[in-house]
Amino acid sequence: MTLAMLLLLAQSAAAQQAAAGERIFLSTCAVGYCHGVGGAANRGPRLRGRNFEAGYVERTVRRGIPNSAMPAFEAKLSERDLIDVVRYVESIAAPAGSSPAAPVPAGAASSPPPAMPPDAAAGRALFQDATRENRCAVCHQAGAGEAKAGPDLAAGLRDPQALAAAVRASHASQVRRVVLRSGESFSGRVAADLPQMVRVFDMSVLPPVLRTLRREDIVSIEADPGWSHAQMAAGYSDDELAQIARYLAWLAGKR
Prior knowledge:
Order of helices and strands: HHHHHEEEEEHH
Number of domains: 3
Number of helices: 7
Structural class: alpha+beta
Strand order of the largest sheet: 4-3-2-1-5
CATH superfamily of the largest domain: Cytochrome c-like domain
CATH class of the largest domain: Mainly Alpha
Largest sheet: 5 strands, antiparallel
CATH topology of the largest domain: Cytochrome Bc1 Complex, Chain D, domain 2
Shape: globular
Radius of gyration: 21 Å
């Protein structure tokens, strides 16, 4: 067998590993407050386009990062799945040979937030309030980062009355009841409707988890009249929503 054929076989094997790793990444690394879909920044750091030192990705996936939100996966994934994820992350990072970038701690923001007036800062604190299980930031982005289960709120709803009305509405038409052949069913919001699979944000857990479902495993995806956004956001008063609206208006003005 020639060297060229060996190289082609190696490239093909690496591509297959990366494809398998992407599927595992979607269900373990791109969910909730972790790395975004495709390695874009979420609450975890951006992976796409990064320059990592040789071996850094595998060490980090295996051992995690102490005193951070990055867990160790050595005991959670099989050896094959772990290596597939490593190959996928390496495939979306910058090409080898460029200067390696210093690792970004898990959970760190991709850039420091710009200075903002006190009223907008108060709204941001409410939007991200970690003491509330149903805070806005669980399901929504505000102007930056990977899309979440809900829409980017910085794109609109800057008027306090409009925001309050939208929050108190049901939005049931946007949330579906997903029924699986296994007997499981849950409220979800479809993120991608693909030929062989459907990606759905599972709204039955917080933060919502992005799940990749095979079409043959799905019985139905229909309207879910039992889900209510008003119930999810019941912890916010109208005055607090007005403060959040001022934060969103400030963000819109920075664009």
